């Protein structure tokens, strides 16, 4: 199947990788193209294999998953990183997001939640496990209605605000294009303009900005 999601498993525990392999190989739209036991190996394997999604453990020998994620996103931005970890404390959660991860799922999550997360980040969306998503929202809202040095929202055109809102709600480029009756290429150009104007760097930043500005609500 040509449109299969190509996965790289990065975890230092062979038993964990084996369980993931059994689960994910059973999905008709997924294929495991490689595995890694360390952060350094994950970086090498991403360079060799160009996976769509990297399932990244945080605590691995040598280089940890946070630093590996940072380097992968610098060298291969098209590969999405999904943190799959036993750690649910704020420090690891926020550090992985800052490093460029597109999602964060605890290992206690149900198998169907992990599968949904992989599909979401492969589409360019952000997936945050519900109990952790609330922390992101609350942390950002605590910073107040306007962050220091934050550009005003009125720098955006009305169409850019529409695109920003839909991005923050989790819609893909193609879905946004369909809703606004424009091309996906135009959506991508609007996204680039939004990020440049607001000095934002990824979809997580866009979601947090949209929350701060009231473009989306907590229930979304």
Your description of this structure?
The chain has 220 residues and is an alpha/beta fold. The protein is 51% helix and 13% strand. It contains 10 helices and 6 strands. It has helices spanning 14-25, 39-49, 65-75, 90-99, 111-122, 130-141, 158-168, 173-180, 184-198, 203-212, and strands at 5-10, 30-36, 53-56, 80-85, 103-106, 127-128. It has a 6-stranded parallel sheet, with helices on both faces. Helix 3 links the parallel strand 3 (53-56) and strand 4 (80-85). The chain is globular, with a radius of gyration of 17 Å. Mean pLDDT is 83; it is low at 144-149.
> Strand order across the biggest sheet?
2-1-3-4-5-6
Report helical residue fraction.
Answer: 40-55%
Overall average residue pLDDT = 83
Shape: globular
Model regions low in confidence, pLDDT < 50 over at least 5 residues: 144-149
Total helices: the number is 10
Q: Over all CA atoms, what is the radius of gyration?
A: 17 Å
- Strand content of the residues, in percent? 5-15%
Helix/sheet category? alpha/beta
Distance between the termini: 33 Å
């Amino acid at each position: 199947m040509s449109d299969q999601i190509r996965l790289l498993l990065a975890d230092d525990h062979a038993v964990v990788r084996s369980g993931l392999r059994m689960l994910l190989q059973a999905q008709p739209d997924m294929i495991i193209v490689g595995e890694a036991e360390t952060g350094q190996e994950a970086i090498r394997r991403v360079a060799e294999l160009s996976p769509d999604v990297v399932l990244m453990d945080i605590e691995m020998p040598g280089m940890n998953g946070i630093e590996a994620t940072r380097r992968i996103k610098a060298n291969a931005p098209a590969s999405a990183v999904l943190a799959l970890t036993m750690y649910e404390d704020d420090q690891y959660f926020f550090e992985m997001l800052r490093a460029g991860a597109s999602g964060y799922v605890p290992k206690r999550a149900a198998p169907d939640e992990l599968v949904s997360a992989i599909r979401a980040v492969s589409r360019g969306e952000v997936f945050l496990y519900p109990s952790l998503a609330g922390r992101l929202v609350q942390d950002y809202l605590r910073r107040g209605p306007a962050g220091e040095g934050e550009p005003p929202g009125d720098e955006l055109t009305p169409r850019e605000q529409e695109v920003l809102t839909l991005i923050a709600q989790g819609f893909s480029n193609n879905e946004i294009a369909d809703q606004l009756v424009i091309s996906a290429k135009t959506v991508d150009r609007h996204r680039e303009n939004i990020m440049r104007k607001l000095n934002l760097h990824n979809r997580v930043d866009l979601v947090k900005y949209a929350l701060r500005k009231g473009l989306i609500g907590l229930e979304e």
